[in-house]
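I hope you will forgive my troubling you with a question about protein structure. I set the record out below, with my sincere thanks for your time.
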Amino acid sequence: MRLICSLNSSRHAFLMSYIYCSQFAEPKRIIFLVDTGCTTTTIAPNDVHRLEINYDVLEESTPSQTVDRVVIPRILMDVDLFFAGRKGFLNMQRTILKFHLAQIDVIYPSPREDDEQEHPPPLARSVSMLGMDVLKHFRKWHFKNHELLLDS
């Protein structure tokens, strides 16, 4: 199986997916940054709002250090991620890859009293991260043109 990630001008890899959990009536589109430094797949604050995740009903997770602060994520349970992938050897056919995760982290921005109004925290502008809980299933990684190819 193969996933094909797009690279931006800084050569960061992004992957479009659909996410489903009990809070959604149907799967919703999300774009992940491929992040090998992220242990657990994590939904960023802007996607929490866009996906209409009810953050208030989620249990707290373990505190995590981000770029500018320590956050206490919440846990979203029983999540399915769907990716458009390829299968086969010579004539690769399109397929849907599904990953079921017992839990993922959800981050909601905590207010910063001193300067939040003038300067939104970097975390609020961040992207959701595809963590090693999914990436560990792909043993071969290589770059080709403007893509990162992940092969299982």
In short: Residues 4 and 10 are 17 Å apart (CA to CA). The two ends are 5 Å apart (CA to CA). Residues 2-151 form a domain with the Cathepsin D, subunit A; domain 1 fold (CATH 2.40.70.10). The first strand starts at residue 2 and ends at 7.
